[in-house]
Write a structure and sequence with these properties.
The protein contains seven helices and 36 strands. With about 525 residues, the protein is of the alpha+beta class.
């Protein structure tokens, strides 16, 4: 072939590619996609092509939103093997697999086990890149799909979880950084226990879990925003375990992304008015979400700051470490279980259910049957319902120490924890006693109130006596109009008496604000100074 003919073929090929890339969402086995050309989904929602992230010069094959001015990549094919120049080609090989070649070398490929005569690659408006058999028509059967191999982004209609028949594990893994889409160390995946868990990991370290699905949401994250623009689904069958979400309104553009910069799983919604992504929710939400923060039988509570408390019937395993803020060793029982001596249960409310690694589930049992099942197994430590809808149904049992519990007011679940008969008897005798914290706050407040009234009474009596003496000296029988109001204290006196409103002096919160313990000697001394000035 002479050089003129070769140039003609190249120019013709380039013109064909340009015309083809601007109008189609498909690629056939006789075509290839070059750097600079793209596939665009039927209604213009997504685009497939080559890109360089951030300041990087490496080239990647990826999918991004077509109708959003800010390029937002949602999937990367060759995240582990970038190309160094613009010569790469995407094509379908003779076995029907998708292949990315650079200089004759295969950089990335799919591994479809079924060979077909008419393979076709198509970019869908969902953002899913699918390989189908064109002769099947619109059967919906995919030889391969990008949704089975997500990168860092979770799109509506995707499945995150495990196919129990094939072993396919769909998980999200963050980019290393904004310039490098290769896999980072922040991972979101489903753990296939008897009672599955949605979890996040920092490398090999267990970072966060949502708690088991309860039919409506996750037990550890019930505080979903009201009027959600999405519907959520969690499937646990013999064939697969996965979670998914779907927009209630197709005009809402949303994505969930794993952000390794701050180790958040973030949900964004596109705002047309500002032409920008708006952060809608994120996980973890607070320090109490840290996995295993309070150790076994510890309960994390958010007050002014996260605080771990042992559940009723338990005490810190290491009091010194616990009091210093190291709660990792957790709590131990006040009384050991004695299966033969008639153990029972205490109901705890508004909790994130414990780690389900050592748990068992039956979806058809009642709560009473569940109690009996747990009571008859000496290794069972707790039980709860599986599905909270319609009054609750199903049975979940735990067979080990209870880990990663936290308080969730107005949204947590009931958990029945096993206790020894002797501990139940002890708790029965003290159940009507006020909580220690309440006693610790109320008693000082009451004492302080009476002391304050006593001071007021003292100064009122003193003022009355002075007025009587004055009237006797003046010989006046008329009632004095002199002020008999309660004593007033200036801000300086109160500041000194509360040690500058120290947190150590704070007793609690009332309807009118914080309540502080005051040094009565400083209070009286300050009042005397005011009187002397008068």
């Amino acid at each position: 072939m002479d050089s003129l003919s070769f140039m003609f073929i190249v120019v013709t090929s380039l013109l064909f590619t340009s015309q083809f890339s601007s109008a189609t969402d498909t690629l056939t086995s006789t075509q290839s996609l070059a750097d600079g050309s793209t596939l665009i989904s039927k209604h213009g929602s997504f685009e497939l092509g080559f890109f360089s992230p951030g300041s990087s010069r490496n080239r990647y094959l990826g999918i991004w939103y077509k109708n959003i001015p800010v390029r937002t990549v949602v999937w990367v094919a060759n995240r582990r093997a970038p190309t160094k120049n613009s010569t790469a080609l995407l094509m379908i090989d003779i076995k029907g697999n998708l292949v990315l070649k650079d200089g004759g070398s295969v950089v990335w490929s799919t591994n479809s086990k079924r060979e077909v005569q008419t393979p076709l690659l198509q970019l869908l408006d969902s953002g899913n890149l699918v390989l189908i058999d064109a002769s099947d028509g619109h059967s919906g059967i995919y030889l391969w799909q990008s949704f089975d191999y997500p990168t860092d982004t979770f799109l509506p209609g995707m499945k995150l979880g495990v196919n129990l028949k094939t072993g396919l594990d769909r998980r999200l893994t963050s980019w290393k950084n904004w310039d490098d889409p290769s896999p980072g160390d922040f991972v979101w995946k489903i753990l296939v226990y008897n009672n599955p868990e949605s979890t996040m990991w920092k490398g090999s370290k267990f970072y966060f879990r949502t708690g088991p699905w309860n039919g409506i949401t996750y037990s550890g994250k019930p505080q979903l925003k009201p009027n959600q623009p999405f519907s959520f689904n969690f499937v646990h069958s013999d064939d697969e375990v996965y979670c998914a979400y779907y927009p209630k309104n197709k005009s809402v553009i949303s994505r969930i992304v794993m952000n390794q910069t701050n180790y958040w799983r973030e949900r964004y919604i596109w705002e047309e008015a500002s032409q920008s992504w708006s952060l809608y929710t994120y996980l973890p939400t607070d320090y109490c979400d840290t996995y295993g923060l309070c150790g076994a039988y510890g309960n994390c509570i958010i007050t002014d700051s996260p605080v771990c408390q042992c559940l009723k019937g338990f005490n810190p395993k290491s009091p010194d470490n616990w009091n210093s803020g190291d709660w990792s060793q957790g709590c131990v029982r006040n009384k050991s279980l004695n299966c033969q001596d008639g153990d029972g249960f205490i109901k705890f409310t508004e909790l994130k259910l414990p780690d389900t690694k050592y748990s068992w589930v039956n979806k058809n049992m009642s709560l009473e049957e569940c109690r009996g099942k747990c009571l008859n197994n000496c290794n069972c430590t707790a039980y709860s319902v599986v599905d909270i809808r319609n009054g609750g149904s199903g049975c979940a049992l735990w067979f080990n120490d209870l880990i990663d519990i936290r308080q969730i007011p107005s949204g947590g679940q009931d958990l029945y924890i096993r206790m020894s008969a002797s501990e139940l008897a002890r708790l029965e005798t003290v159940k009507d006693e006020p909580d220690e914290k309440i006693v610790a706050i109320v008693i000082p407040v009451v004492v302080l109130a009476f002391a304050f009234l006593g001071v007021c009474y003292y100064f009122c009596q003193r003022r009355i006596i002075k007025l009587k003496d004055k009237n006797e000296i003046d010989g006046s029988d008329e009632s004095s109009e002199e002020d008999l109001d309660l004593p007033l204290f200036d801000l300086v006196t109160i500041t000194r008496a509360t040690n500058k409103f120290s947190l150590n002096n704070k007793l609690g919160e009332g309807g009118f604000g914080p309540v502080y313990k005051m040094d009565m000697r400083l209070l009286l001394r300050g009042y005397q100074v005011i009187q002397d000035k008068d």
